[in-house]
Amino acid sequence: MSSIGGYSMVKKEHILIPKPRSAFILVRCSNCNAERVVYSHSSMSIRCRQCNSLLVRNTGGKAIIYGVEVNRFA
Ligand SMILES: [Zn+2]
């Protein structure tokens, strides 16, 4: 004697985690207004070439941008 009454219909759906879109971003230094293209997921901190102030700081994931984001290239 077999029973199918206890069959579970629970589906395990995959929850899609939106991947952070990496991009190149044109950042303007808030100190000297020099512009520089940086990578949004840069693995290293990036400093302004002119005044050496920090433009992008590495966090291990998405970088923190300290300058002014002027443009974004996907
Ligand atoms: Zn600067």
Automatic annotation (TrEMBL):
UniProt keyword terms in alphabetical order: Metal-binding, Ribonucleoprotein, Ribosomal protein, Zinc, Zinc-finger
C4-type zinc-finger residues: 29-51
KW Zinc (keyword) present: yes
GO biological-process terms attached to the record: translation
InterPro entries xref list: Ribosomal_eS27, Ribosomal_eS27_Zn-bd_dom_sf, Ribosomal_zn-bd
Domain of life of the organism encoding this protein: Archaea
Pfam families: Ribosomal_S27e
Cofactor note: Binds 1 zinc ion per subunit.
Cofactors, names only: Zn(2+)
Key word Metal-binding present: yes
GO molecular function: structural constituent of ribosome; zinc ion binding
Any single Gene Ontology cellular-component annotation: ribosome
Ligand binding (Zn(2+)): C29, C32, C48, C51
Stated family: Belongs to the eukaryotic ribosomal protein eS27 family.
Subunit and interaction comment: Part of the 30S ribosomal subunit.
Designated name of the protein: Small ribosomal subunit protein eS27
